[in-house]
Amino acid sequence: MSNSVNIKKTLIPIFVFIALIVLFALVFNLATHGKFLNAANINNILSNAILASFTAWGFCFIMALNYMDLSVGAVIMIAVYVSGEAGNAFGVPALVVCGLAVGVAVMTLNFAIFTWTRVPSWVAGLGLALIYEGCISIYQKYKETLGGNLVYLDTKYGILGRAPLIYVAFAIGLILAYILYNRSALGLNARSVGSNPNVARAMGINITRTLIMTGIVSGIFIGCAGFLRESFSAGSVIPVPQSLSSLAVIFPGFAAIFIAQVLGKWINMIIAVPFCAMLIYLCYNVFAMTGVPLGTISETMIALFIIIFGLIAQRGNKGVVK
Hints:
This protein is an all-alpha fold. The chain has a domain at 42-246. It is 76% helix and 0% strand. The chain has helices at residues 2-31, 39-64, 72-90, 92-117, 121-145, 165-183, 185-195, 197-202, 207-232, 247-263, 269-289, 296-313. The radius of gyration is 20 Å and the shape is globular.
């Protein structure tokens, strides 16, 4: 009986949230005379939401430790370029392996730096973001000396960024993120360390090992975000990030995880992430169709939406909300 009650408590909020998204989509579809819900537009929204979901799942593990790594966007961009080079040279399997390898290697390096330098993660992350962006710029200049440009993936190797394989990748990512975050010792240990490292240490949790393992796991999802982004953009060159512009890469995923944390009262955060990402890209799409300039204005409106959403969700709470 208790299991059936718990299942109902989990499923009902999910269905309500889905129903609200569907209602929003239907209303706007009527307002745009059917342009909003055409197959190409829906696929574009879902594909972008999937890219943001992998970024957000990576952040779920990072933030479980009460860390904030702002170099993630630059790590994704390194994975983009490396996986693109590997994909063009050796095909789709190399694209996947190299994207994952970059994500895991660089995020493990990040967490090793956080662990052994004791520098606050957000400070170190900003510094690392600048270093990684500089490395990408050096690589760009090297390519220019050879008479070429930054790599773009040949369209024949971009199958993972198109239906149906992008949805297969999403399903695998969702299952893996859910199990690792909710059902594994690593997920439990990461949340324990983030909640109170002294208590976690007293419980026998190896904090250093937990930090490094979290870097590895978050790197898997961030690496996936990299090679999927390159696959989705196959046939075009992705601009080089400069002056911390890589932060824009993580904004949709970061916004999704923020809303998912608010919805965590009712929906498991890992499951909520893709729905929140979809909601964000629905808003972006609405802005584009209504003539709102994309970029700073649209992102400001999304940020205001997130703040309002947080205020509504925290209504009734007394005191300072941390």
